[in-house]
TrEMBL record:
InterPro entries: Cation-dep_OMT, SAM-dependent_MTases_sf, SAM_O-MeTrfase. It holds the Pfam family Methyltransf_3. GO terms for biological process: methylation. This is O-methyltransferase. PROSITE patterns: SAM_OMT_I (PS51682). Gene3D superfamilies: Vaccinia Virus protein VP39.
Length: 177
């Protein structure tokens, strides 16, 4: 798997990022192990400080139906599945076979296959087929496609739902010439 170069290109000061990554409590159990292994191998998952924020946010809003664009190895989808309750569900999309295989294995290992549906394919083709509505949408995929995905997300989002878009500053590279 390719390294995630954005993990080392924070928009805020490196010292602050290091502080947050060192001091914020790690996730327990299998989810924590998944995060640790991904970070050691440079697998593209959300940074720990983002995961902690997402965990806190989802704990507050308690969404039932979640859509994730960009499953990767299933870390953030697994985190979100902890917040949907017995009747909720996470739908996640990915197009890369290697990521799909890892995500499926991780969902199985974490025992959440009943709470997560992994849709295989390009989000540009999958999103128009979805009906929603979703209480929460997490967009964390090809940054160059966010503009294309946004109208679909708005259509799929419940009236009082929440859309969270990861890496909007692309590690500060949006300011590069």
């Amino acid at each position: 798997m390719a390294l995630n170069e954005m993990m080392d290109r924070p928009v805020v000061k490196k010292e602050l990022v290091a502080f947050m990554r060192d001091r914020l409590k790690r996730f327990p159990g299998e989810l924590g192990e998944l995060e640790k292994t991904a970070n050691e191998r440079g697998v593209p998952i959300i940074p720990h400080e983002t995961a902690v924020f997402l965990n806190m946010l989802l704990g507050q809003i308690k969404p039932k139906q979640i859509l994730e664009i960009g499953a990767a190895i299933g870390f953030s989808g697994s985190l979100m599945a902890q917040h949907v309750g017995a009747e909720g569900h996470v739908t996640t999309i990915d197009r890369f076979e290697v990521m799909i295989n890892h995500a499926k294995a991780n969902f199985e290992k974490l025992g959440i296959t009943d709470k997560v549906t992994l849709l295989e394919g390009d989000a540009a083709e999958v999103l128009p087929t979805l009906e929603g509505p979703y209480d929460f949408i997490f967009m964390d995929s090809a940054k160059s496609k966010y503009y294309e995905f946004l109208p679909h997300c708005i259509r799929l989002l419940k009236k009082e739902g929440m859309l969270v878009i990861d890496d909007v500053f692309q590690g500060g590279t949006i300011l590069d010439d």
